[in-house]
Amino acid sequence: MIPLLEQWEWEKVNQITCEIGQSRDITGMRRDFLTLLGQLVAFDLADFYLNDTATLGRVRLVDPVVVSRFSKQFNEKFMAEYDKCYGQIDYVKWVFSSHESIVYRESDLINNEMRTKSAFFLDYLKPAGFLHVAGISIAKEGSCISAITLYRTEKRGDFTDKELYILNQLLPHLQSKLSREFNVIDYNIEKIRKGFSLLAYQYHLSNREIEILKLVCSGHNNSEVGNQLSISVNTVKKHMSNIFDKLGVDSRTHLFNLLLRNNKELFE
């Protein structure tokens, strides 16, 4: 049975879809989306990740936008713990490897007894006060390009069928917007790969740094780069640190964004 939305709820859905379509700033769009969504689907914390632009075909979620009722310090600690420790044991992480976009509610995906006995729940979610989780995994051409997760405390209760219906109404608009964004990213990364000699000149990159940058732009992680060049992972990390310092960035996503934003003349 399809849940019935009230007039104001449809108006809010329309407002959100307009915001998605009209926004030119992908970071601002994600923040505005979560802020407006909170007026329809209540949450205590929500995050909106992108998949690493250099690793399409594999899932490496980066560059989160977070909206919550908690302090910035709490948000940063919660997100950092997931990235460093608990992401590997997330019992619904398989959702992000789905070939299709999906709206999900954790209670529909895993038996509650198993969930509440898992290390992910006991060591990560419960200490933060989050007992209920729902989300959206957004795919393009069979690969995850973005993920949204909504967290609730026990007081709010689990996400309802009506709220999942609202998320499903918004999903096609998110998928369309982010697919277009990633089409541009794919095209521009290919242009970046053709401009390495000019990059070396402009940013004073060494031959080894250019070799590593080429592999990074092809989607290789540090271990794979090391294997390709017969150097250790620590050496790769040192070179990447030097590259980041020279370009003034702190992540691979920011690296690509900087190259595209400030160096368009290199790729004409």
TrEMBL record:
The keyword Transcription applies. The keyword Acetylation does not apply. CDD domains: LuxR_C_like. This is Response regulator transcription factor. InterPro entries: GAF-like_dom_sf, Sig_transdc_resp-reg_C-effctor, Tscrpt_reg_LuxR_C, WH-like_DNA-bd_sf. It comes from Sinanaerobacter chloroacetimidivorans. One of its GO terms (biological process) is regulation of DNA-templated transcription. GO terms for molecular function: DNA binding. Keywords: DNA-binding, Transcription, Transcription regulation. SUPFAM superfamilies: C-terminal effector domain of the bipartite response regulators. Residues 198-263 form the HTH luxR-type domain.
